[in-house]
């Protein structure tokens, strides 16, 4: 049966402006229900880019972990993280720590890595009192809406991520690479096309050039796939950026992005990217017990500001390995 035919077996609600949604009212055993509908759910994600499943009633991390493992081919261990997450189980994490009052920019998880998740899985165990939706945007539509000249340059050159690791801000070297051993870090960098430089103070500077446009591994559709905006210095709160420049210097910020030739990506381009994402963003407020599946190539995701406690657990699944040529 084709992907489209499998997807059609589910009655997905495709109202404009909201995340594609499937309502479930017969899942007394959520693990068994998920296993029985696995192929249809995965096909619907390929078809629509994302799918919110409501009515499963996921109660805790054990529920979420069991469902994630039924849906995924395999779960990933995160590497090159920017902010350490809490580990709930092998391959199951807390959502990224991010200030509740600030939106999280649209991005594709680990799109700066040569191995990234093809599928993102989210489970809401506790919904915030206001806001906090995990927003999604069709990256193929975003690509089509961006100026051809800008896309052409990024396709020719790729994009460059520059990181400066220290022991004060963001993930430490050990948290990002899973080890403090310099040789192991260097081996990882060489294996993953990352240029590295050890600093006199023991810090580490890395540079990695990546593709900005990716063909979907199943459909072949061209998608805007990167974190050019999310990891750019101009996405930071202005006061935070000014402080970091004052303390570390403009060339030693924890991270920023550039064109593939090293030219800076200025604030105007970051605003353009943000506006284009926003024009193609849909959202649905979380309810406790919800499950969200996101095709990590076809669909970018972000997060709204929120109030009140919010507990969303995450898994990165079905790794895709690409060449950087």
Automatic annotation (TrEMBL):
UniProt domain TauD/TfdA-like: residue ranges: 28-315
Gene Ontology terms for molecular function: dioxygenase activity
Keyword Secreted in record: no
Cofactor(s) named in the record: Fe(2+)
One GO biological process term: antibiotic biosynthetic process
Cited InterPro entries: AlphaKG_dependent_hydroxylases, TauD-like_sf, TauD/TfdA-like
Key words of the record: Antibiotic biosynthesis, Dioxygenase, Iron, Oxidoreductase
Entry-linked Pfam families: TauD
Name by which UniProt lists this protein: Alpha-ketoglutarate-dependent taurine dioxygenase
Organism annotation: Kutzneria kofuensis
Phylogenetic classification of the source organism: Bacteria, Bacillati, Actinomycetota, Actinomycetes, Pseudonocardiales
